[in-house]
Amino acid sequence: MNISREKHIIILTGLGHYLVHFVTMILPAILILLESEYDISFVQLGTLLTTQFLFMGLGGLPAGILVDRFGSKFILITYFIGLSLSCLWLYNSTSYSSFVIGMASLGMIAGLYHPAGLKIISHGKDVSRYMAYHGVFGSLGLASGPLFAAWMSSSYTWRFAYLVIGYVSLSGLLMTLFYSEEKNIKPHWPSLKVNLSRTHIILFTVSAIWGIAHHGVFNFLPYYFSERVQLGFNPVSEGGLLTGFVLLLGIIGQLVGGKLGGHYKRESLLLWVVGLNIPFLILMTFSWGTPLIVFACMLGAVNFMFQPISNSLIADISAVKGRGLIYGISFALSFGVGSLSGIICGYIGNYLQINMIFISMAIILIPATIFSWLLKKDVKKS
To answer: Which of 364, 35, 50, 357 is CA-nearest to residue 228?
Structure first.
């Protein structure tokens, strides 16, 4: 790839990754408003979160297969068009059932992106560094999503947040139309009997468990901040502002993770990254005000080191042929299994207390740490 082509790829995949996480973080920021507008319970709010991320995971697996068959360009075109249409539906949603349908549609469309974008990046010369750049765009989307949703909700209505994304995604469509895939990569129907090693299975298991904890924490963090921190703003603005700031620090994690992944053994780094989340989650459970903000910020920086390291590990242990399917399986498990956190945390917040969500996610990460240790030993043997 020449320099101009690399820049095109970084910008295109960066925008695609940005929009995925931007649009999915609008929902956590407006939970309080939806609770009041639709007169629904905390469990029903959790169901909305589960619907969005479950369908996102369900979209990931077929996307991986379709990427290998039709190429990343076709999938990205479908993604950007579908994103615009789904956001238009949500803008016009006036009932809880209509919003659920919109979340399912949005999730399925959002699930198309990662296998396509990650496969494009995986062909780059410096995979770890490109994964870090890609992750930075995702972190920017995660951070600005709740901020934008809080601003739109306070100044206008939460519906405008989805409408704006619908128009912005059209610019991604135009960029995709001018993108040309590498000539030496011929689309093919991948064999569904993909050769998965023991290392793949262990890494997928870590990703699945990680998905539950990751989504459980950050989907309910805006609501948690609105209850335990007082900045003098309305609850939606406070939750969105603080969550956006925490997620912005995830950029540091993305860059550090990508940098370390290029110099040290990624399987060893994965073990440390997963394990270090546990103490911060425990501290957040029993904190209020400023200490809660500080511990959440530390968690944000550590948490997002996971993505460039794990995505690069997949490239390390997978052949180029069929790699889109491998990314699709990993994505489907991470978001599909991770979507269960919505209902799980919904029940925890409804029948216990919302702070118990965070210590529960810390407990869930214990087996993920154990599997990360097994992964390290397994890679060392191979």
So the answer is: 357
Q: How many Cα atoms within 13 Å fall on the side-chain side of residue 275?
A: 11
Q: Is 237 helix (H, G, I), strand (E, B) or coil?
A: helix
pLDDT at 229 over 70: yes
Burial of 167 (0-12, 13-18, 19+ CB in 10 A): exposed
Q: What is the pLDDT of residue 1?
A: 44
The percentage of residues in the chain with a pLDDT greater than 90, rounded to a whole number, is 32
Q: Which of 8, 57, 25 is nearest to 248 (CA)?
A: 25
Longest alpha-carbon distance in the chain: 58
Q: Environment class of residue 39 by beta-carbon count within 10 Å: exposed (0-12), middle (13-18) or buried (19+)?
A: exposed
Cα–Cα distance measured from residue 175 to residue 17, given in angstroms and rounded to the nearest whole number? 14
User: Using only C-alpha atoms, what is the Rg of the chain?
Assistant: 19
Q: Nearest to residue 299, comparing CAs of 381, 353, 359?
A: 359
CA 355 from centre of chain: 22
Output DSSP code: residue 2.
-
C-alpha distance from residue 351 to each of 274, 347, 348, 356 (Å): 28, 6, 6, 10
Give the containing element (helix H, strand E) for 214.
helix 198-228
Q: How far apart are CA 105 and CA 131, in angstroms?
A: 27
Write the pLDDT tens digit of every residue in 52-77: 988 987 877 777 778 777 777 888 99
What is the spatial distance between Cα 88 and Cα 73, in angstroms, rounded to a whole number?
Answer: 23
Contact 77, 179 (CB under 8 A): no
What domains appear along the chain, each with residue ranges and CATH number?
3-180+195-381 (1.20.1250.20)
3-class DSSP assignment, residue 20: helix
Q: Extract the runs of DSSP E, i.e. beta strands, from the chain.
A: none
Main-chain dihedrals φ then ψ at residue 93, nearest 5 degrees: -75, 125
Structure-token pair, residue 263: 């110099």
CB 35 within 8 A of CB 153: no
270-281 pLDDT, tens digit each: 889 899 999 999
Q: Are 357 and 345 in contact (CB under 8 A)?
A: yes
pLDDT tens digits, 122-132? 665 666 677 77
Give the N- to C-terminal CA distance of the chain in Å, as an integer.
31
